[in-house]
Amino acid sequence: MAGDGLGRSGRRRRREDDALTSPEATRVDALPLRGGTANRPMIGAAPLLITGVATNWACCGTWDRASLTRRLGELDVAPFITGNGPRNTVLKQVNATKSMTFGQALAHLFGVQRIVDGSLYLRIGAESPGFDELAQDFVVPDVGVEYEAAATGVWFSQTGNVTPAHHDWWHSFLIQVRGSKRYTLIHPLDAVSVQQNWQASERFDLSPAPELSTAATPDWDGEVRYEGILSAGEILYIPPFWLHEVETLTEGNISIPMRFATTQSVASNLHQLSQDGLLRSVTNTPTRNVATIINVLRRNRRVFLAREEEFVRALVATREIDVDAARLLADVRHGDGVDR
Ligand SMILES: O=C(O)CCC(=O)C(=O)O
């Protein structure tokens, strides 16, 4: 508010005696559904902690080191190595992988036998051998939107592994099969202010985002954040575009991230363009090849210009402006239409 004399922190509504905590995601006992019903929350509306749904699936009852080794122990896998620190970043574009058998990976992940120096994070995606065998033990529920098999998988993790803050473009159900994870979720409209103090390499490239938890950000002045523990048998529903950070709290940890398509999009095309558009291709390709980067940026610019053109044509038509849209665009692009 103009003239109120308060700085950023002064504008915060947090009272002096408020404990610095965030609520956990709302607990429900049914999966959300497109449009919702009397007994089912509406998919897309808010994060949820869903209890009592996955508990009876065979994966939650039977997956342990012995049974998985018996079934798939000889499978060739290539887990990410995540380092030895207390906060072992997991970034698929950055972490090195090491080939081994699934049996060896499980021995390391469960803390039974040390196979590498550091921790492991293993993803068996829908395209990987072994996935179909594992998929017999869980259900793909009907939530009224299309299942995205290619983005679904089974993830094996160890204490201290951290997937840093990021957002995805799908409805995500993080099904916790074994052990527990800590999660922090931030509303998409808080994302811009959250990122304001990040380093450029954290905002625009692959340096891991700074920790978002309440403990790590006592000066948080955003508006919507949830934080809590996801335990075995529970499902965390993460709506599209919500920032999320996930830390593994136990050894031999198993989750199934199950994804479904969304028709939702963030409100601003420009925001979407930088966050979800082709610039993300640069971020996801750890290249220093200038020609490759130029090509991606050129493609990005063509997409942007096409959107700008669409907008200008619509504006001219809707307001019945007596101007040729192409001429107007040319003026804009050459800078000679400014301040006329
Ligand atoms: O479980 C994790 O480590 C990360 C989960 C996640 O980022 C996701 O499901 O999108």
TrEMBL record:
<protein>
    <submittedName>
        <fullName>Cupin-like domain-containing protein</fullName>
    </submittedName>
</protein>
<dbReference type="InterPro" id="IPR003347">
    <property type="entry name" value="JmjC_dom"/>
</dbReference>
<feature type="domain" description="JmjC">
    <location>
        <begin position="117"/>
        <end position="277"/>
    </location>
</feature>
<dbReference type="Pfam" id="PF13621">
    <property type="entry name" value="Cupin_8"/>
</dbReference>
<feature type="region of interest" description="Disordered">
    <location>
        <begin position="1"/>
        <end position="24"/>
    </location>
</feature>
<dbReference type="InterPro" id="IPR041667">
    <property type="entry name" value="Cupin_8"/>
</dbReference>
